[in-house]
Amino acid sequence: MESTTKGKRLILFPVPLEGHINPMLKLANLLYSKGFSITIIHSQFNSPNPSLHPHFTFQSIPDGLSETEASPKDIILLFSLFNTKCVQPFKECLSSLLSEEPVACLISDSIFHFTQSVAESFKLPRIVFETGSMTCYAVFTHFPLLREKGYLPVTQDSQPEKVVKELPPLRIKDLPVIPKSDQEKHFELCVLIATKIAASDGVIFNTFRDLEEQGLETLQKQYPNLPVFPIGPFHKCIPEEASSSTSDRSCISWLNTQAPNSVIYVSFGTIAAITKTQFLEIVWGLGNSNQPFLWVVRPGLVHGSNWLEPLPKGFLENLNGRGHIVKWAPQKEVLAHPSVGAFWTHNGWNSTLESVCEGAYDLFALFQ
Q1: d(CA 336, CA 227)
Q2: Residue 368 CB partners (closer than 8 Å, separation 6+)
Q3: Are 89 and 65 in contact (CB under 8 A)?
Q4: Which residues contact 88 (CB under 8 A, 6 or more apart)?
Q5: Inter-residue contact 131 to 24 (CB < 8 Å)
Q6: Crossing angle of helices 349-358 and 18-32, rounded to 10°
Q7: pLDDT for the residue numbered 6
Q8: How many CB atoms are located within 10 Å of the residue 359 CB?
Q9: Burial of 34 per CB tally in 10 Å (0-12, 13-18, 19+)
Q10: Are 187 and 153 in contact (CB under 8 A)?
Q11: Exposed end of the chain (fewer CB within 10 Å): N or C?
Q12: Exposure string (b/e) for 339-351, b if CB count within 10 Å is 16 or more?
């Protein structure tokens, strides 16, 4: 545990999913390097490993989630549960920490919208960390208008190529909706998050101005008094730390044997799931591409399968080394590798930002 004499203390509260925890911990390291002391409040579900961050103080709170509830399969439901079951434990933990020493501010994930009222009750400044892009959040702030104009909800009868006149050059198919989710609940959650961010003392984005100039302008026009801090990309601002994910480094050795700019790297993040039919379409697409490929197939990616059970027998062997499949890969190292020429991604913001920084050509997959 770190000494508490190093400057002012910040309390950070990440959502317990890899795509939220990892950038929040990178932000914590960036702030620590500027002289702040860091306390991480985290839920018991998918908790971070304190031994990987000995310079931080960690405080665990109960989340009250059952084994069935603690699943990202219904992400909107999971977020709703976080915002009900974590309220009292978080409030008690925050009260205890504030009684011990001064705290400069709370930095909470935008998904934890309940933290705005809790912070206000303690007269504690709250800054929001939005793990998505500025452009995505700018769209969320316009959800009520988009519904009024008929762009939402997106249905089978929507015109996907139609330009959203209020947010050019976005088209209807570009709007951030979650396939097969309850669109009404998603709408309500996004509006609530946007409202609570607008009431905060500022919002941090893991992005940079030159990448999202238009998104920044839209936000500043919508909320002229809200401080916006595009201070990323975090992974380029601080040294890389050990990851809690177990990466298979055999993929690096395999990449070393491939020609420059020849490999298709395929990874769909930590949450996205696909059907067996989609999996087989990807299998044969990669197999018939005549290009070498590195494919991350994490356990549970395919509905109803543990790992590679749906893979046709002899598929990899028949490729004679042209394909390599792993459960997880050191993604930033892979994207920076000279043999990688394209990245087939689920389009999560962390993956998008990492590929932009390494100059990889992206192929986006949207799973229905």
Answers
A1: 33
A2: 179, 180
A3: no
A4: none
A5: yes
A6: 60
A7: 46
A8: 9
A9: exposed
A10: yes
A11: C
A12: bbbbbbbbebbbb
- Which amino acid is it at 48? P
For the record, the structure tokens of 219 come out as: 């936000």
Convert the pLDDT of each residue in 165-200 to its tens digit: 999 999 999 998 876 678 899 999 999 999 999 999
Quote the tokens at residue 220: 């500043």
Cα distances (Å, whole numbers) of residue 300 to 248, 272, 273, 289: 17, 9, 7, 25
Structure tokens at 222: 């919508």
Assess contact for 233 and 206: CB atoms under 8 A.
yes
pLDDT (tens digit per residue) in 308-356: 999 999 998 999 999 999 999 999 999 999 999 999 999 899 999 999 9
Tokens of 312: 């046709």
Q: Are 188 and 180 in contact (CB under 8 A)?
A: no
Q: Calculate what percentage of the chain has a pLDDT beyond 70.
A: 94
